[in-house]
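Still learning. Show one?

>
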Amino acid sequence: MFLNILGALWGGSFLFMRVAAPVLGPFLLIDLRVLIAGFALLIYAYAIRKMPDFRQKWKQYLLLGAVNAAIPFTMIATAELHVTASVSSILNATTPLFALLTAAIWLKERLRHGKVLSMFIGIAGVAILAGWGHLGHSPIVLLSILFSLLASVCYGIGGVYTKLHFASEAPLTLAIGQQLAAGLVLLPFSIPTVGRLQGMTLSIAASVFCLAVLSTSVGYLIYFYLIKSVGPTKTLSVTLLVPLYGVIWGMLLLGERLSVGTVTGLVLILSSTIMITETKLGAGSKRTVSQNQE
């Protein structure tokens, strides 16, 4: 049950960004998201008497917050000004593919034949989604697709950076530090757009709240609970649930429609993800699923 709830919350983040980004703009929306989420988690940490200490690694946290939250979140919110929540959530499922590439380049991890095949399948899925998904071929749409993919690249880099510099860090501390650091990084860009708050409506405020508190803060807490209760292997399947729920929410609440190309792209990208994650598990990996699925 909790696994489905987590998939629904992380998949719902694409819906909330699609609703709020056109009004608040990507920078202000994402800064509100990470700051509210960070402080909500900080309050939780205080309540359970596990306050984090960032003094020794504050520089590393600033870099992590930028690469693993501020930049990719903003890119996705920018992309969703021109592509649907469904498409954005599907493209986000390429994160394991780029994590694999980053690990191969940075950590010199060997790419076996199965992994190479999974990469080509994922790339084919993206190509079909972009070229046969009825998205249009205007420069702004293609740029939005590129932004969504670059966000996944950032997650791949962020995952490797976390492995190198935060291997012994408590997960809750890591989540709080990443969100608050991302908020600081975004402040110079969000403050000039604060006037957009005048367009805030009840539905926009609800979207911001759900994005920050439910999709991010509560999502992280459920994620940590699942890691402890069912283990990282089963939790890894949330990677497949996020785009599925992203598509479901987009269809039910935003009236988005799926083309044959979109469905084909989704199937290929998810197949690529399954092959990558199964290869990792088969190799005895004990790494947990990336904390950024939204």
Observations:
- Residues 2-282 form one domain.
- Residues 281-289 have pLDDT under 50 and may be disordered.
- The chain has one domain: 2-282.
